[in-house]
Design a protein that fits this description.
The chain is an alpha+beta fold and 472 residues long. The chain is 33% helix and 21% strand. The chain has four domains: 139 residues, Schlafen, AAA domain (Methyltransferase, Cobalt-precorrin-4 Transmethylase, Domain 2, 2-Layer Sandwich); 65 residues, no CATH class; 179 residues, Heat Shock Protein 90 (2-Layer Sandwich); 63 residues, Winged helix-like DNA-binding domain superfamily/Winged helix DNA-binding domain (Arc Repressor Mutant, subunit A, Orthogonal Bundle). The chain is globular.
Length: 472
């Protein structure tokens, strides 16, 4: 099945970051568009979808996707990391989805020419645009992860982690290594060497203990007894080691400390166990924190704080411009701040669809009956907060105002309303800003779901139960 977020994206139509291709017989138009997205803010291409947004489907989609993936790898230079080519099915109609992040090593060239996006069109880059792209590329080479880790030697590498990479890459089929038995060449092909030395990304990903050289990479995980930070904690750990091992250990810390709801089925003794938080949201939240944090900050890091009513995952980073916290629950461009680290996580299947992890978190919380997750980007970093079932009523005391109550009482699951119609029909006398805040509050409580963007924005009633209590 096609994910709901992709369906909504197709429904919203073609934009500067979304393109439809009704077929995939000719790879050249697709290759030029991929090149343009890499040279811009990234984007998505849907093959098997008409320009009117109708899902047509493609014959032989799977072998076509394999040939297209190989074609793009061979014809786009420099090599485009994170490029995802997948096949999705909708009632027997297959489409090919190509997810393209914003490139960091451009200008990118397809069959000898560079391309850019102008509105919803792909065009050849002129001289001025090429100059701008070259300037941007020179800045990207100064990324922390691309600098040389001068003290890292080959014997410092964790061979088990390198073997894990090769095994998972072969299983997922996301990357083809030219010399898989040559570990140095593997790291070179991943862009993790520079001038014959290992980069800091290689250190973080594959060193036995990168914290010797980069102490800021450690993860602090604490389980508190109360709903506030204090000295009264139930469990406390600091994790270090190669990135994936730290991730797995932190995930196990959360699993062993979070609660599990147990319910009995029927009249027997069989039970249904339900985790406090959907396990996939924890994995996605940790992966995002480790992938997008600011590794250059010596005072930063990643912190996990587990309270009775919520789980907080903080990292010392900031959302890349122009993204804002509210964008993370909707379709948004993929702008990796540590592209080499993200590429390895993608190859190892820790990231399945680039740029959609935050949407997945929001969708899973809704399906689990939880409050909508919250992201906060402030001076110290980015914090993701997941709200536990027991803590759901703490967000707004389980109550709504009189305007919201009338809407909820009238609307059935699946019915939609536009913000302007809500203000006219249910919020007369309040400002447009307050009316939109009403809708946002209901979205955060998973009582409404936002659909579309800009002028097409509307709010759809979810199936979540409402207790009917009003607040004044």
């Amino acid at each position: 099945m096609i994910q709901d977020s992709i369906k909504r994206q197709i429904c919203d139509g073609e934009t500067a970051t979304v393109e439809f291709q009704d077929g995939a017989k000719e790879f050249a138009p697709i290759g030029r568009a991929v090149c343009a997205f890499l040279n811009g803010k990234g984007g998505d291409i849907f093959c098997g979808v008409s320009h009117a947004g109708v899902i047509l489907g493609l014959p032989d989609a799977m072998p076509t996707a394999d040939r297209l993936r190989k074609h793009l790898q061979e014809t786009i230079t420099p090599h485009a990391p994170l490029l995802s080519v997948t096949v999705d099915d909708e009632d027997g109609r297959n489409i090919i989805t190509i997810e393209i992040p914003a490139g960091t090593q451009g200008p990118y060239v397809y069959e000898g020419a560079a391309y850019v996006r102008r509105g919803g069109e792909t065009r050849a880059a002129d001289a001025a645009t090429l100059h701008r792209l070259l300037q941007a590329a020179s800045v990207a080479t100064e990324l922390w992860e691309k600098r040389v880790s001068t003290a890292l030697e080959f014997d410092d590498l964790d061979t088990g982690e390198l073997e894990g990479l090769m095994k998972e890459a072969g299983k997922a089929g996301r990357f083809a290594f030219e010399k898989p038995d040559d570990r140095l060449d593997v790291l070179r092909q991943l862009g993790l060497t520079r001038g014959g030395q290992f980069t800091q990304a290689a250190d973080v990903l594959f060193a036995k203990n990168p914290a010797f050289r980069h102490p800021q990479i450690r993860i602090r995980a604490t389980c508190f007894e109360e709903d506030k930070e204090s000295d009264r904690f139930l469990d406390d750990n600091v994790f270090e080691g190669p990135l994936v091992k730290m991730l797995d250990r932190t995930e196990k810390f959360i699993f062993r400390n979070m609660r599990t709801a147990v319910s009995f089925r029927g009249k027997g003794l069989q039970t249904d166990d339900r985790a406090e938080y959907p396990p996939e949201t924890i994995r996605e939240g940790l992966v995002n924190a480790l992938a997008h944090r600011d590794y250059a900050s010596f005072h930063g890091g990643v912190a996990v704080r587990l309270f009775p009513s919520r789980l907080e995952i903080w990292n010392a980073g900031h959302l890349p411009s122009p993204l804002k916290p509210g964008d993370l629950k909707r379709n948004h461009p993929s702008i990796p701040v540590n592209p080499d680290i993200v590429h390895v996580l993608y190859i190892r299947s820790y990231m399945n669809r680039i740029g959609r992890g935050t949407q997945k978190i929001a969708n899973l919380c809704r399906e689990h009956g939880l409050r909508s997750p919250q992201w906060r980007d402030d001076s110290t970093g980015v914090t993701l907060t997941l709200f536990a079932q027991a803590g759901n009523q703490r967000g707004n005391n389980g109550s709504v105002n009189s305007r919201q109550a009338v809407l909820l009482a009238k609307f059935k699951p699946g019915e939609e309303i536009r913000p302007g119609d809500y203000q006219r029909q249910y919020a007369e006398g309040v400002t447009e800003r307050q009316a939109r805040r009403d809708l946002t509050e209901l979205e955060d409580a998973n009582l409404l779901e936002r659909v579309g963007a800009g002028a097409t924005t509307r709010y759809r009633r979810t199936a979540r139960d409402w207790k009917g209590r009003n607040r004044t």
